[in-house]
């Protein structure tokens, strides 16, 4: 009986360790990019070197980003949202890469969002992974504006109210969170500061509804608990770096990375994996102790 108890106890702790280090099971992912819905084109997003904010690395415009509309081909699980007829939507998280319509194969495919984008070199500057704070904030952003505000992502993607203004604003906010590297968490929610900044092309903030909406959505996020202090969607990165994780590959070597969602609609809050597994382990430990006490009484 003691021997069995030790085995169960060891298994409980192994579960915690594995859970804390676990990442997304990755494999090549193939999908067809059907088309995209662009933003209004009234906003420019500028990417600066985090170590030298006077050094402009990359400039993009909101009309070059927006919602991408896909058909999932292989594998068909997990189902990416909105998932009707294997369709799903995505937004760009890699400003310096491009993508075209037609069949696209991502390798390693679905990846932990906090470790994206891959590769993460822009204009010769290594930005590194977006990290846990930004991935949690992006998950809040998706939940707030792709599941709650518009009544579920399946309807949001095709809703008449979800127009170029909303798609462009969402893309701007996503870019901010994908590349902001400021040590001050508040900077991650402010489009006017940090190393990712957005401004109206006509330099008149009052006339750029797209920029105002993006900033409003960012204002509604919380950095509490490293971004885990609010309800979040279940997001992954659709990543392509030819299977070479954390490498400094040349720009435009592979396919543009995307952020995608999986789960129900509306999406549920994502529990902390390590915490959930820890509670499971505690349950197993309790079971072990109970069995040991019974054995001693016997």
Keywords:
23% strand, alpha+beta, three-stranded antiparallel beta sheet, 6 helices, single chain, seven-stranded antiparallel beta sheet, disordered N terminus, 298 residues
Low-confidence stretches: 1-23, 148-158, 245-252, 264-292
Strand adjacency order, main sheet: 6-1-4-5-12-11-7
Output the helix-strand order: HEEEEEEEEEHHHEHEEH
What integer value in Å does the Rg equal? 21 Å
In DSSP terms (H or I, runs of 4 or more residues), the helix count works out at 6
Q: Report the count of strand segments.
A: 12
The proportion of strand residues reads 15-25%
Structurally, the number of domains stands at 1
Helix content: 25-40%
Shape: globular
Instruction: State the secondary-structure class.
Output: alpha+beta
Overall pLDDT level: 75
For the record, give the distance between the C-alpha atoms at the N and C termini, rounded to a whole number: 11 Å
Largest sheet, in brief, is: 7 strands, antiparallel
